[in-house]
Amino acid sequence: MTKGRVLLLILSCVSLFSAEPRHDKAAKKLVGAWRLVSVEGTDATSPFAYDHPTGILIYDRSGWMSVQIDVKGTRKPFVNGAGGGTDEEKVYAFDNYLAYYGTYTLDWKAQTVTHHLEDASSPNRRGANNVRWFEFQGNDRLLLIPREDGKGGVIDRKNATYKLLWERIK
């Protein structure tokens, strides 16, 4: 056997047994269901004033995601049943709940996850891309930091104050 073939064989074996790339580990770590723990700061892109919010965020292996957040954590049933809400009740329910779904992509180098919105509770968000810096805190906590400044630009990460902390649902 020539030296070249031996080297090729060794490199092939090493690549088969080498550790998984970091971005694959991050993608696998992201997959699952996450419960909203806290929201810090104010979202520059929406008028929501968070007060004891609750929520769930789901990433699946096929590249789809969804999120739902009750902004105040106090939504009450309509007095006259599900189909009989007053205009005021409907406005309150809509103004205090956000949801969207779509696909997601990870950029390991930039440490971002982008949510590509297929649809959202706010119709004008359809087709938008929500870019979030991500940071794992141990195995069971995920910090997402939105990059948007609300004016079409990007906030510098060190100046970002709006943060959502999620905890893995087991």
Major sheet: size, sense and barrel closure? 8 strands, antiparallel, barrel
- Estimated share of beta-strand residues: 35-45%
Q: Count the DSSP helices.
A: 3
Assembly classification: single chain
Provide the number of structural domains. Answer: 1
Residue runs with pLDDT of under 50 for 5 or more positions: 7-21
What is the averaged pLDDT score?
A: 85
Keywords:
3 helices; alpha+beta; 8-stranded antiparallel beta barrel; single chain; 170 residues; Lipocalin
Overview of this structure, please?
The protein is an alpha+beta fold and 170 residues long. The protein has one domain: Lipocalin (Beta Barrel). It has three helices and eight strands, in the order ααβββαβββββ. It has an eight-stranded antiparallel beta barrel with strand order 1-2-3-4-5-6-7-8. A hairpin with a 3-residue loop joins strand 6 and strand 7. About 9% of the residues have low confidence.
Topology (SSEs and partners):
Layout: H1 3-17, H2 22-30, E1 32-40, E2 54-59, E3 64-70, H3 87-95, E4 97-107, E5 112-120, E6 129-137, E7 141-146, E8 163-168
Quick overview of this protein structure:
With 170 residues, this protein is an alpha+beta fold. Helices cover 19% and strands 37% of the residues.
